[in-house]
Amino acid sequence: MLGRRKHYRYYFKEPAKGTIEITEIRNRKVATKKAPILIKDISGNGLRFSTDLRLPLTEVILYKFALLLTGHDLSFHGKIVRVEQLQDSTFDYGVQFLEEHKFLTHIIKKLSEKILGHSAS
Hints:
By secondary structure, the chain is mostly beta strands.
């Protein structure tokens, strides 16, 4: 589904398990523990996830996201660009990756084609 976006976006029927960790604050490398997240959708340039963690909406913190998708261990660096508090004290976050991921776009296109039973556009 492209809509107004330039990348294919894959919506998981059931959220995919992934992890998040902080990798950089104000251009300084940091090491933090990984925390579990539930990934709701993903594209070549971003993802949407939910968690009970309250994370700041700021440009100065960079995160690393990891998940297993179609047998591939994938990881991406990005920043949170949107946050929405849900009714059950969890939060939905929108993430923009620091760079476009063509391999991920390819996987998402193949997943969409498989689900739709024909070529996605």
